[in-house]
Amino acid sequence: MNTNLPPSFQQLGQTEKTTLAVRKRMFGRAWPFRAPVRDGIVPLWPQLAQSHASTHESTVPCMNDEVATIWLNDESVRAAIHAEPRSVTGPWELCTQRISYDHDAGSMIPYHINLTSQGYRALIFSQAWTSSVGYKIVDEWRPWFTNSQVAG
Questions:
Q1: Which of the residues 96, 117, 136, 152 has an alpha carbon 20 to 30 A from that of 37?
Q2: pLDDT digits (tens, 9 = 90+) for 105-132
Q3: Is 71 helix (H, G, I), strand (E, B) or coil?
Q4: CA angle at residue 72 from 68 to 75, to 5 degrees?
Q5: What is the Cα–Cα distance from 149 to 152, expressed in whole angstroms?
Q6: Are 86 and 76 in contact (CB under 8 A)?
Q7: Element (H or E) spanning 41, and its range?
Q8: HEC states along 5-32?
Q9: Is the pTM above the cut of 0.85?
Q10: How far apart are CA 73 and CA 90, in angstroms?
Q11: Residues 20-41 pLDDT 10s
């Protein structure tokens, strides 16, 4: 057991009777462990399955997206999660070629300088980052706790 993890994580899957398996995925698609994450088009299951099958004897595990497809194509759900209606974006699809992902959004320093100079308050977690913006440290660094557990 990894003792560096918070107690709540160390106890995942444990009960008084026995240790239970921790669920690794939910309905639909679980992002594959060690999947390549790069800027550009996100590799989806068909591409991952093809590259995996060409280098390994086993294949990527099956998935069923029926529940997610029905749920995410419901207009009331789309409105609740602030997604555009199907008339704008088309239906939700598990294996779409419409996802473009920028893994590195670049430095957030200009955004923070702009917002804090306008009077917005911000909680900044990095001492090196705070110094690079030119802010003074007004309170010594310490763990942040919630429910008696280190949270940051």
A1: 152
A2: 678 788 888 988 999 887 766 667 667 7
A3: helix
A4: 150
A5: 9
A6: no
A7: strand 40-41
A8: CCHHHHCCCECCCCECCCCCCCCCCCCC
A9: no
A10: 9
A11: 444 444 434 444 445 555 666 6
| Joined tokens for residue 35 | 């999947």
Provide the phi-psi class of 27: left if phi over 0, else alpha when psi is between -120 and 50, else beta: beta
Beta strands 149-150 and 40-41 are unpaired
What CA–CA distances, in Å, run from 102 to 26, 29, 39, 64, 105?
A: 25, 20, 5, 27, 6
CB of 45 closer than 8 Å to CB of 53: no
Per DSSP, what are the bridge partners of residue 149?
146
Token digits of residue 47: 């591409």
**Matching residue, tokens 């003074």:** 136
- Find tokens 């609740």 and name the residue: 80
Angle at 85 between CA 79 and CA 88, to 5 degrees: 150
Enter the tokens of residue 32. 């594959």
Is 37 in contact with 103 (CB distance < 8 Å)?
A: yes
Q: Record the tokens describing residue 72, joined without a space.
A: 């995410």
Nearest to 126, CA basis, from 111, 114, 108, 150: 108
